[in-house]
Every structure is written in C-alpha cells, then in structure tokens.
Write a structure and sequence with these properties.
With 227 residues, this protein is an alpha/beta fold. It contains six helices and twelve strands.
C-alpha cells in the first residue's frame, strides 16, 4: 500500500480530507493513477490512518477515513555522524539508514572529509521518501553539518557514543537505547582524531574483516547499533 507523509502544520488528518497539493496530486494522477475506490495510508507526527478515495477531481482528491493504523517507530534512538561524502553518496546514506531506523543524521567535517557542501532540504526530502517507502512512522531529523570536535562536545553526555575503527574489539551494548556512531571518510580517521576519541573515552566498534567504502560503512555501523 502506498504511504504518504502529511505534515501536521499543512493539514489535520480528519474524517474527511481533501488533497490539493499540486505535486502530490500530479503524482497520484500521472504516476500512480489513483482512482475512486483506491486506498492510501497517510501519516503525520502523531498518527497514521487508512483512507479511501471517494472523489477524484482534476486538481484534487477527496478522502474518507477508513481506520487507524498502528504506528511503527524504531525501538532505539540512533544518531549517525558521518563524514560528508560526495552528493549522491550522502543521498544513499540517508536513504538506506532511514530504512534501517536512524533517528538523527548529523553530517560531520573531519580532517579528511571529501566535501563540505550539504543540501539539507534535499536530504530531508530523501528521508521523507525513504520513510514513506519502508513503513516507519517517524521522520528522522536531518541536522546541519558540524565539525567532528563540535559533534563530540555536543553529544558526548547525551548518547552512548562509538566510533568505527578497524582494530576495535568492543561491541555496542544492545541494551542502550540512545546511541551514536561516528563514521569516518574514505581516508579514515587521522591519528590525531583517534587520539581525541580515546581521550574523550569513546568506545570503538569494528565493522568486520573487510575494508568498506565510507557510504557502506555507515550502513554496517548503523545495523550493528540497531541489532
């Protein structure tokens, strides 16, 4: 079933609902070819509901509420701090880690970061689309980029914070429900950054026996924390 996020500030999910957003109506008409009698799930920050289309007009759809649906929220609050990559790779990280259940994305700039440009609005759209597709009911938060030092200073007292490292022996404690992982760039962490991690008391986790691309490392690290 197709699902769509409707921000609560745009409209309330009432018993009867009109959808007249131009972009959404175009998608429903030209791409999905929705017609009267079709059902669709809508969700916002508070609830998820099943609707039936009972009237299709050239520029709008009228929906009638059928039933409330169970919301699906990740059990853990996982923050992903990843060293910014080239644009399409960042898109892939956000899409796949949203599907895995990341609650907060914090792009970081480390010594060997490839790119310091980040389109936050584009990234939010990608996160929303991934949320709609995968079935979860909460939209992850996309943060503005910050330096690695800022990230550690801001979050070290708020999360169980880990960093990825090939020589790590530690395994993330699955009983913790607020976790964060720092994932480095293609060139890895510098010696100075690794020393800063140790001095800050951060735990390290190993992703496996193979060397991953940076975007793949974000997927593997996220999966380890969640599972």
């Amino acid at each position: 079933m197709h699902r769509f996020y409707i921000p609560s500030e745009d409209r309330e999910l009432r018993q009867e609902l009109w959808i007249d957003d131009k972009e959404l109506v175009h998608q429903w008409q030209k791409v999905l070819r929705f017609k009267e009698g079709d059902e669709v799930a809508l969700f916002d920050e508070e609830c998820e509901k099943l609707y039936k289309i009972d009237r299709a007009e050239p520029n709008a759809y009228r929906l009638q509420h059928v039933t409330d649906l169970m919301r699906k929220i990740p059990a853990k609050h996982v923050y992903l701090f990843w060293s910014l990559l080239k644009k399409d790779k960042n898109d892939w990280v956000i899409q796949k880690c949203t599907e895995l259940g990341v609650s907060n994305f914090v792009p970081i700039i480390s010594e060997r970061t490839e790119n310091n440009q980040f389109d936050i609005e584009r990234s939010r759209k990608i996160a929303i689309e991934a949320t709609e597709q995968c079935g979860r009911s909460d939209i992850p938060t996309i943060h503005e980029p910050m330096s690695l030092e800022q990230a550690i200073g801001t979050y070290i007292d708020k999360l169980a914070l880990y960093y990825t490292h090939m020589e790590a022996d530690d395994v993330a404690d699955s009983t913790e429900d607020k976790l964060g992982v720092l994932v480095g760039p293609e060139g890895g962490w510098s010696d100075a950054e690794l020393e800063n991690f140790r001095q800050a008391g951060l735990k390290s986790i190993q992703l496996g026996n193979f060397v991953y691309r940076a975007e793949t490392a974000s997927i593997v690290a996220t999966s380890k924390l969640i599972n």
